[in-house]
Amino acid sequence: MVSKWSCPWATTHADGLVTSGSTEPVLSALELRGFEIRDMFLIGFNPDCGSIVFESEARAWEVKAALEPAYRVTVKRDLDDWVADFDRRQSDGSVPDWFVRAVALSDGTVVMRDGRKGGAR
């Protein structure tokens, strides 16, 4: 089955699943929670965050319910599709920045460490 999201840089699977990037962690979480993995485009930016695109709003809210509280999930409309952006939570419930991991000023002041503002651990 060809999905509307099929493209050269993504992998098309059975049941309308299209994946790109680091998808294993979130796919495992969805399977463990009984979410029906079909008709969606899963983009893993890294093992800790990404986006899942659906044609229906209901499926986007279902994936939010399946992933929380282990992930922070934000559902939004994007043109003709619904997108669920996800970020893995730390064991304390916080969500660090998964892209910018460390920032230090030229004077040596650490502004961010391990994706957390203020250099906190």
Description:
- By secondary structure, the protein is of the alpha+beta class.
- It is 17% helix and 36% strand.
- The chain is built from two helices and nine strands.
- The protein has helices spanning 24-32, 57-67, and strands spanning 11-12, 17-21, 40-46, 49-54, 71-78, 81-88, 103-104, 110-113, 116-117.
- A six-stranded mixed sheet has the order 1-2-3-4-6-5, with helices on one face. It has a three-stranded antiparallel sheet with strand order 7-8-9, with no helix packed on it.
- A hairpin with a 2-residue loop joins strand 5 (71-78) and strand 6.
Features:
alpha+beta; 3-stranded antiparallel beta sheet; 121 residues
Question: How would you summarize the topology of this molecule?
Answer:
Layout: E1 11-12, E2 17-21, H1 24-32, E3 40-46, E4 49-54, H2 57-67, E5 71-78, E6 81-88, E7 103-104, E8 110-113, E9 116-117
Parallel strand pairs: 2-3
Antiparallel strand pairs: 1-2, 3-4, 4-6, 5-6, 7-8, 8-9
